Amino acid sequence: MNPSTAPATLAWIGDSCGYLELIDQTLLPGELTHLACRDVETVWEAIKSLRVRGAPAIGVAAAYGVCVGVQPALDADEAAFFARLNEVCDYLATSRPTAVNLFWALDRMRTKGLSLRGSLLPREVAAGLLVEAQKIEAEDRLMCRAIGRHGAALLQDGQGVLTHCNAGGLATSDYGTALAVFFAAHEGGKRLHVYADETRPLLQGARLTAWELQQRGIEVTLICDSMAAQVMREGRVSAVVTGADRIAANGDAANKIGTYGVALLAAAHDIPFYVAAPTSTFDMSIADGGQIPIEQRDPREITHGFGRSTAPEGVQVYNPAFDVTPARLIKAIICEHGVIEPVTREAIAAVVQQE
Ligand code: MRU
């Protein structure tokens, strides 16, 4: 697939009275179907149900969700419009707890709205909010390209690499974070062989990562999560790159459940483990990963995955959607400003606080 023909993960259609359209990722790879989100409840449900997912994409979707959400108050007075803006931001913030990009984008939208209060009519504020959401999306596209460029320099021609979950174009506005590193290396003439963990229980690796890599003509082999150790032991991979949902000030990084295990395996096999994420994924307000809220999801994702019961009725289930990889296991963090290595509180602060 030519990158310019990659289907857009999400797009705003029309002016400030328009709507958000997104790929329903729960239907991939079988069906490439778009969902029109014309009210904030539909945006909330799309985030909650992982129709749109991946930390940066959740942030962009939420920003557009604010634009959809304020529409019923366009003709209201100023107080009612701003009450609605707050209500919509608070509501969208309840959709998922772990990816900090969601809260980061909602904060930006709220702040933008407040900066326009007093001088403009509600309709004009709504137009300003749409400009801000479009800016968030445009910045995300640029950040992903920069991450790809910085990360590609870390990989060699002919290398086997492994990734977990999906940190590709579908998880961002375009191009991805961890997969951006592979895409950029591939576009630069480096041949890679990517091992994609299927990523239980929702199979983002099988359904989305394998699909994206295939679309771009990158060699990909799908493995069950439990096979990563054997793949490493056989010497098939010499680097691991994953995305992140929230990175604490000390570099501890939350990502899809199973990532921590992969990082431990990489350490045991002396394989560098890289995290690729934009600065919007850093949460400098928390000292370490112990304070990152971990989303707990419906037990049925494990017992009834993809339509069939695979466990005895009534069994107890534990279903955390994310885990935290300690900074000491991360060789470097690749962000849009460059490569943070070693991963220390000071090195992170120097890069993230330069903004
Ligand atoms: O539950 P998901 O599918 O939203 O989890 C996504 C991940 O864990 C990604 O690796 C992360 O958000 C980084 S996306 C660039």
Structure report:
With 355 residues, this protein is α/β, with parallel strands linked by helices. It has two domains: 3-144, Up-down Bundle (Four Helix Bundle (Hemerythrin (Met), subunit A)), CATH 1.20.120.420; 148-352, Translation initiation factor eif-2b, domain 2 (Rossmann fold, 3-Layer(aba) Sandwich), CATH 3.40.50. It has helices at 40-48, 55-69, 78-92, 100-116, 122-152, 178-187, 204-215, 228-233, 259-268, 300-303, 345-352, and strands at 10-13, 19-23, 34-37, 160-163, 193-197, 219-223, 239-242, 246-248, 253-256, 273-276, 282-283, 322-325, 332-335, 338-340. It has a seven-stranded mixed beta sheet with strand order 6-5-4-7-10-13-14, with helices on both faces. Helix 7 links the parallel strand 5 (193-197) and strand 6. Helix 2 packs antiparallel against helix 3 (78-92). The chain is globular and about 65 Å long. The mean pLDDT is 97. 5-S-methyl-1-O-phosphono-5-thio-D-ribulose (MRU) is lined by residues 50, 53-56, 99, 165, 167, 171-172, 176-177, 204, 242-245, 255-256, 321. 5-S-methyl-1-O-phosphono-5-thio-D-ribulose (MRU) binds at residues 50, 53-56, 99, 165, 167, 171-172, 176-177, 204, 242-245, 255-256, 321.
